[in-house]
Amino acid sequence: MAVPVQPFAGPAEDAPVGRALARRSGALGEIGALSRETLGERVTGELRALLVAGRLAPGEKLSLRRVAEALGVSMMPVREAVSRLAADGALEVLPNRAVRVPVLTLAGFRELTRLRLVIEGFAAEEAATTASAEQIERIAGFEAAFGRAANAEPPDTAAGVAANRDLHFALYEAAGMPSLVEMIERLWLKAGPILNLDMRHEPGRLRGGSAVQAHAALLAALRRRDAPAARAALENDIRSAAAHIESAGGLAE
Question: What CATH class is the domain 106-248?
Answer without folding.
Answer: mainly alpha
